[in-house]
Structure formats: structure tokens, C-alpha cells
Amino acid sequence: MVEKNCKSSCKCCENESQETLLSRVDELINEYRGQKGALIPVLQQGQAIFGYLPEIVQKRISEGLGIPLHKVYGVVTFYSFFSQEPRGKYLIRVCMGTACYVRNGKKVLDELKEQLGVDVGETTDDLLFTLDVGRCFGACGLAPIIMVNDDVYQRLKPSEIGKILESYRKPQVEAEVAK
Ligand code: FES
Fold first, then answer.
1. Number of structural domains, the chain?
2. Alpha helices per DSSP H over 8-154
3. Residues 166 and 107 in one domain
């Protein structure tokens, strides 16, 4: 039983939510079982349910669809849109194409690493931000560019990073206070 005052980070809540999420993955598997080409859509939707594809989910899908685990793992590691690590609510992608790189893109990236305390490919402990890099976002004239989910920031200066991060942290803090 979950205590009223228990914090969302405690083990009982984690287990409860994991079980709930796994039962949704089971429903998904049942929907697709026996269909050709089921693996990729099940992995995509499984990732949407969990936020990423931990081993426990890959095993469940492997057993549920009757596909060997090494094949499931092979697909997960082949496609870059699948992740085996938890990802932040906001994915920050820094353009490292040539135009952005020569116009201070590297300094922007260094500032993000410094302020977030993570390296490329890593996620902050509060699961708010994941830092990643990309190759040419197709708007070189506006370099340097970063994207935060679907938001685009162009002609960016490293000194503007703090304010941008704050604008994503703020709604989070307001939601915490409103609880
Ligand atoms: S190099 Fe960054 S948008 Fe083209």
C-alpha cells in the first residue's frame, strides 16, 4: 500500500509505477502479437510509455512477440531514436555543423555542459534536460543554433544560455509549488 505522505521518489512508488507501465506494454504487445513488422512500432510505443527502453522492457517485448532478445537489442541500438537510458523532459540539441561550429557553436555547447553539469548524451539528475548534438539544422545563416524540443534558438550567445534554461525550469518549479 502507498502511504499518503510517501515521496514520489521512494521505492514503493517506483515499483508501483513500473508495474503499471509494464502492464501497458503488455497491452501493446497483445495488440500487435502475430502481426508482421510489429517490433518497431511496439518499441516506439514502448519508449513513449516508459520514456526510454530499459532492459526489462526489451525482455518483455522479446518474450511477448516471440523475437529473440539479441534481435530486439540489435534494433534498439541501430536506430538513434531509441534510447536505453532515461531521457530528460527537454532534449537540447546543439548544432555542430560547420557554420555553427565556426560561429561559437562549440562555446555554446561548453556553456551548456557547464551549466547543466552533464556531457553530450547525458541527462541531468532531475530528468529535466538531455544534452545532444546534431549536424546542420538547415539554417546556417542563423548560426549558431540550438533546439530545445521543438523550440529553435538562433544567433545564440553563450551568455544567453542561463536565461533559456531558466525559462524551462520555471514552469517545473511553479508546478511543484502548486502541488
Ligand atoms: S551548420 Fe548549423 S544550421 Fe547549418
1. 2
2. 11-32, 39-50, 55-65, 69-78, 98-100, 106-116
3. yes
